[in-house]
Amino acid sequence: MKLIIGASGGVGQGLLTAWEQSQRVATYHQHHPAEPAGQSHLRWLPCNVLQPGWADDLLDAVGPDLPETIVLCTGLLHDADHQPEKSITRFDRDWFARSVATNTQPFGELAATVTTRARRDQAVTLAVISAKVGSISDNKLGGWYSYRASKAALNMLVRTTAIEWRHRLPQSTLLSLHPGTTDSRLSAPFQKRLPEGQLHSPDYTGQRLAQLIDNAQPKDSGDFLSWDGSLLPW
Fold first, then answer.
1. Residue 210 lies in a domain
2. CA distance 86 to 145
3. How does pLDDT run across 94-153, given as a tens digit for each residue?
């Protein structure tokens, strides 16, 4: 079984399509997505990753068995009142806290829950959608302070948890994934400035990420990978 958290967004929808032959559980936040005909292997569950205890509640609802693949796709870059900060003078503590609460904290809560529930001999792949702009050494342009910082912190949680899993869950794998720029609500305000060919459809992104996740092995645990399979710097 594959669990896709935040499946109503662009990347999540792409993963649903890529894995359409697999048994899937998908989550949405506010509005139940329309279900295409023939999706007999798909079950939708409501989920709010900002609620205390959400990870335990979700896995209880999924069923007694831990899914072999779990992908966390939730994220926040902008809203109706906030755009990514171009200058540190635009730093806002409430927006920063909200960015961390949405982009970073849910993975920590989910990883803690999975770590507690998984058996030592079990093979679980837990992947989270990060972003290349969360790479500290790759940062040559600046800006986007809250988003960059929240994704950098997310990457650190992945890397540190992977070190623990080497001893505690040696058959399992943790991945931090950069999906590229996907045609979605998150990227919509920034698409006009993209060079031709750099905007991917949700289906294309889903196919590439699904390949990475399906082919991942414990030796890859803790890696930060781009959609094309290349290893990204921290």
1. yes
2. 8
3. 999 999 999 999 999 999 999 999 999 999 999 999 999 999 999 999 999 999 999 999
Long-range pairs for 178-182: beta carbons < 8 A, 24 or more residues apart:
178/130, 178/131, 178/132, 178/224, 178/225, 178/226, 178/227, 178/232, 179/11, 179/129, 179/131, 179/205, 179/209, 179/227, 180/205, 180/208, 180/226, 180/227, 180/228, 182/10, 182/11, 182/14
Range of the domain at 35: 2-226
Cα 93 from Cα 79, distance rounded (Å)? 16
Give domain status of residue 232, yes or no: no
Can you say whether the dihedral through the CA atoms of 208, 131, 115, 23 is positive or negative? negative
Is residue 28 within 8 A of residue 47, CB to CB? The reply is yes
Check if the beta carbon of residue 16 is closer than 8 Å to that of residue 3.
Answer: no
Model confidence pTM above 0.70: yes
Compute CA distances 163 → 58, 152, 218, whole Å.
25, 17, 11
Instruction: Please count the structural domains in the chain.
Output: 1
Give the DSSP letter of residue 170.
T
Find the distance separating the first CA and the last CA of the chain, reported in whole Å.
31
CATH number of the domain at 9, please.
3.40.50.720
Residue 99 lies in a domain: yes
